[in-house]
Amino acid sequence: MSGNHSMEGFQSLDSLDSVAGMAAFAQDTQSVSLPESGPIRDASGVNSTLGYNVFDTANALNTPPSNETQGHMIQSIASMFELEEEPPKGDEEMADDDDTEEQVDIEDQQKRTARLKSALPTLAQMWWADSEHMDLMAEKLADGSRDPKWRIPLGDSGILNFFLEILYAHTLRHTLKIHVLRLIGNSCADTDENRARVVSSNYLPSIILQLQDTNLLPFAIPVLYNIIIDYEPAQLQASNSYLSKSLVELISSPRFSNSTAFLGYVCKILDLLITQSTEPEFAPDNTAIVLLRIAADRERPADMEDFVALVNSAVAYLKHEKFQKAFFVYGSLDIARSILVDSYTRFDSTPSFGLSAPDQDDAKILSEMRSGLNQVLSDVSALPEFAVAVPVISPFASSLRRWLSSPQLQLQVCACIMLGNIARSDAACEEFVHTCQVHKPLITVLENTSDSQLLHATLGFLKNLALPAKNKEALGEAGLMEALPRLWAMDTLQQIQYSSISLARVLVTGCFENIRRVAQRLSDDPDSPANMRSHMSLLIALFNRTDVEPIKMEITRMFAAICRVVNTFQGRTPEQMTNIRKKFFLMHPDIGRPLSFMVSQTKWPIVRSEGWFVFALMARYPEGAECISDIMQDVHIFQPLVELLTGRSIVDGSPISSPTQTSPSPGSGTGATAGTSPDQGIQDLISGLSPESIEPQAQAAEISRVDRENALVLVSELLKNRGSDMAVMRRTLFEDLLKGGGELVLSYKEASEAPPSSHASRPKSGSTLQEVVLQGAFELGS
């Protein structure tokens, strides 16, 4: 239910304990503009709207009115609510807009205000006379406040402020206090003008104090809800007045045992309070824990509506780190675990005592609740305190591992997320794999589920487990590499495609056995088309058909990691590695296109550097050099190499960036003709270079240096392993690149070693490089 609670009148004390005496919530209301000011109580008790002091005894009769007079007064109060209404009009067309606001009759409102204002002296007289009939007058006014047409007049007339003041400043009889609360609550229902009066005069704390009286709880709780619903100033004042502290103490004490019907209101109030920026500061740090304990209480089990309300309110508070950290202080992780289990066993299945299973709406509500709880538990488990509080071998972690094989999807999701956050060190990951064998149920999940949420959580956990070198081969042996291709084919779940490729990349990084698994033939039958295809072939096909750049990049990085191992692995004899490389490139002749994407893109410089490094490694062997030579046939790949080694573009020969006074400028020495060998300095330079990888934290200048040197090694190795097979023009082009690039690298080295000079000299550029590049452009593009 939503909206505000309008309080019904009670005719006798016997009816005060009846929850049914409270009317249902009204419909949701739209926010309205607040008045600039309302009746303000000053230090003397003067109501600024009325212009006189209703609490001054001089204004009251010196002697109490007689019973007969009081009876007339009561009758007068009751009769004023019998204001004649307009006769019903004829049939009118229904407005098309359901949100059309009811038109306010200002004249009618003023007439009601005048009637109420005339009764204010009578109220003051009876108050100071301490008349027992005051209770009945308050009841009549509270009954009248149920009609929305009387609510603003009750505020404008000063009646509301009158009762707010006596509640604030005096000790009232229990019956009178009940009707005062009813009047306040009804007057504030859907009426921001009256809520503003409560807030502006700071009456809210006195209403909060009424929560200390157990007998007033059925009235005080809905009154507070009516005041703060849809009215942020009241929510802020309530938060600053420690309302959440009062509510948390209340619902966790025995005093609340007979008022549990109002638990839903308490949760709604807390939901409103936590939207205020001050609430995390003022609310008790165990707020969420108290709510979850009540939800998990099996001696006094909450019904489904209250259960969901309690958990959702706890989730709202658990979005803030203060309440998350309290989980560890109070040792409450097991409570959250019980909540998730109970949400299935208590509500989401057919119990043995004959209750029916929930309908689809209830199932949706429970699912959304679990999803919200899973999210905050994910945040809790991401805190550093979690890994300390929950080691790999612990009862809580054991429960989570059992959830991995649960038929309930959201329990599996929760387990993957929380266990994945324990697996944040090599030691923990190795213990998970080699002691707990946690990867086996995870692989089963990948093989069987198609739920994106569960797949994403599972892949994230497995990626953590795959990071330590000790785990990679064990995961491969368990069949993880064979489980991933199914996910690569999920074109409609691109995030899953990306995450599964990323996991494969981690698995093959530095692990020859996993590379063997991903590159082996799909079929041993020589007549089968799959005989010349592997899992890598599937990724090449995905690279060619997808337009998603991160997926293309992850495939490229995976292939680069594979080529890095294939060209550096020392676990086989040189002859064996030669055969392995030959078979690898024979099986994957089109691997060049994905690899070339690394160096042709400019979005991720660190990935581009990784590409030049792997190219330099591959070019050291004939098999890899052939692949790289084929890649360089594409002018879009060759151009970045030219720019890297000369600082010039193939198209117009202009430098990529303007030279600065503090940086040496690229160029070549004396004008050498095409086909001549580099001078001795360049030969010495090249012989001393080897492929170098970039550190993740490298700065731009360091990246540029390493890229140039790797490109120089690349060209040198290409000429060594493929030069004799190149056309003359092509070989000449690479030789000039080698010479020009070598001179550029030398000039940078000399500049970095030489003392600063006020006149930086630029080496003369070679006269033939630009011409050769332009002449060879057609050949390269063919």
UniProtKB/TrEMBL annotation:
Residues 653-678 have a biased composition (Low complexity). Residues 93-107 have a biased composition (Acidic residues). It comes from the Eukaryota. InterPro entries: ARM-like, ARM-type_fold, RAP1GDS1. Residues 84-107, 653-686 are annotated as: Disordered. One of its GO terms (molecular function) is guanyl-nucleotide exchange factor activity. This is ARM repeat-containing protein.
